[in-house]
Design the sequence.
């Protein structure tokens, strides 16, 4: 999944494009040979973060930290959709960051395999305050090979089922609470001349959200957990086939209209259809609220509603589970010269001042005690809905294209798009995925 207003992924469309500045900053690191392995000079920590509107939170944290620490932190903001490529290129060289922003899962799996990251599991085990500082499902989502390599450092980004209150009111309909409700609403809105679900099918990542939730509800979170762990045969699980068949059924019913394959997200295509009463619902990441607030503020005030993805009849999954981006994480380079100080810095993400800055920035923090702060959020009702949904979730499945390494994620996205476009049958889809 990718989005234009949030640090969704290394292959995302960048919100900020000051590439020349970033390239100069990166080239300067170690260019005179004075930098230690791990990216920083002795007595300094070089911290890399994906540059966007949220970096002011990290800037403030660095300023507070440096006031009391003998070892100083230097924050390098890396803009552009090549963030992950820059990290991969730098790791293992004298120019590597000591601490860096990432998405967990597949985004750091290769580093874990090469013993390039600090295993934080002992720290979480001996420091109950650290482990208890964050919502458990989000901490768990940052694991690789059942070990902790990341400390949550930004807001949560669950996938939410948004609905247009105005369209629902005109149709005399209510938000879906069951899968039968979803199927009935498809017929209702088609009869009203409204597309039931906006879908930006010009890219595969909005379609992936549907596949993620359907598999979670049908087979439970453990099916993808097997896939993520490298069990290719898990793609042959009956729940995967039923998921693909459900996608076929939705397409055949007209759930997404007829032109979804040419609708985009980065140019606000699907979101505009939704906001202009031409679509009733939109399954999208939590950043959809910010996108709509920026581009269609009146729609947010008057008509934007939200709810959870419903259960599937006879499904094994817990309807409280969620999918999306649990958060972003800080990881520590195993070659960092100042590891004790690095650990102190990443723990700053649980400090009250840091959490307060996240809320002021419009984020929903992942800390276990953030609820009391959400009343001061710019959209408290929406923030509280997100927080309660995630806090109650027994599992928070990381977006598959972030959980899997690129060599598997990219062909997976291609196959999903072919499934939605009718170029692969449900059975052919599962066979293609087992082939990965």
Sequence:
């Amino acid at each position: 999944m990718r989005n234009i207003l949030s640090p969704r992924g290394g292959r995302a469309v960048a919100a900020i494009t000051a590439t020349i500045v970033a390239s100069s900053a990166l080239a300067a690191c170690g260019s005179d040979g004075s930098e230690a392995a791990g990216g920083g000079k002795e007595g300094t920590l070089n911290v890399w973060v994906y540059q966007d509107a949220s970096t002011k939170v990290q800037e403030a944290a660095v300023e507070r930290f440096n006031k009391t620490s003998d070892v100083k932190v230097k924050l390098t903001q890396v803009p552009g959709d090549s963030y992950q490529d820059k990290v991969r290129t730098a790791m293992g060289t004298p120019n590597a960051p000591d601490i860096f922003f990432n998405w967990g899962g597949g985004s750091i799996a290769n580093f874990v395999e090469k013993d390039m990251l600090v295993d934080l599991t002992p720290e979480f085990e001996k420091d109950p305050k650290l482990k208890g500082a964050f919502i458990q499902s989000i901490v768990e989502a940052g694991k690789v090979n059942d070990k902790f390599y990341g400390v949550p450092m930004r807001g949560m980004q669950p996938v939410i089922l948004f609905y247009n209150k105005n369209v629902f009111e005109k149709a005399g309909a209510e938000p879906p609470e069951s899968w039968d409700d979803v199927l009935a609403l498809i017929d209702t809105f088609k009869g009203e001349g409204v597309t039931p679900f906006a879908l930006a099918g010009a890219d595969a990542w909005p379609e992936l959200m549907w596949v993620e939730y359907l598999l979670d509800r049908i087979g439970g979170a453990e099916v993808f957990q097997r896939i993520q762990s490298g069990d290719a045969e898990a793609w042959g699980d009956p729940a995967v086939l039923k998921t693909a068949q459900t996608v076929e059924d939705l397409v055949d019913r007209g759930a997404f209209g007829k032109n979804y394959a040419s609708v985009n997200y980065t140019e606000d295509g699907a979101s505009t259809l939704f906001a202009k009463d031409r679509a009733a619902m939109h399954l999208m990441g939590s950043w959809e609220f910010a996108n709509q607030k920026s581009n269609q503020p009146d729609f947010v005030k008057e008509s934007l509603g939200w709810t959870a993805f419903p259960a599937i009849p006879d499904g094994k999954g817990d309807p409280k589970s969620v999918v999306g981006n649990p958060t972003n994480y800080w990881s520590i380079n195993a070659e960092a010269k100042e590891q004790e100080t690095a650990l102190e810095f990443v723990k700053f993400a649980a400090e009250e001042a840091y959490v307060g800055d996240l809320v002021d920035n419009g984020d929903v923090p992942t800390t276990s005690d953030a609820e009391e702060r959400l009343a001061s959020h710019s959209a408290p009702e929406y923030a509280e809905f997100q927080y309660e949904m995630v806090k109650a979730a027994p599992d928070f499945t990381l977006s598959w294209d972030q959980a899997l390494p690129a060599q598997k994620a990219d062909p997976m996205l291609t196959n999903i798009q072919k499934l939605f476009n009718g170029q692969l049958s449900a059975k052919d889809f599962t066979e293609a995925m087992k082939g990965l």
Remarks:
- The two ends are 20 Å apart (CA to CA).
- DSSP finds 21 helices and 13 strands in the chain.
- Residues 19-156+326-394 form a domain with the D-Maltodextrin-Binding Protein; domain 2 fold (CATH 3.40.190.10).
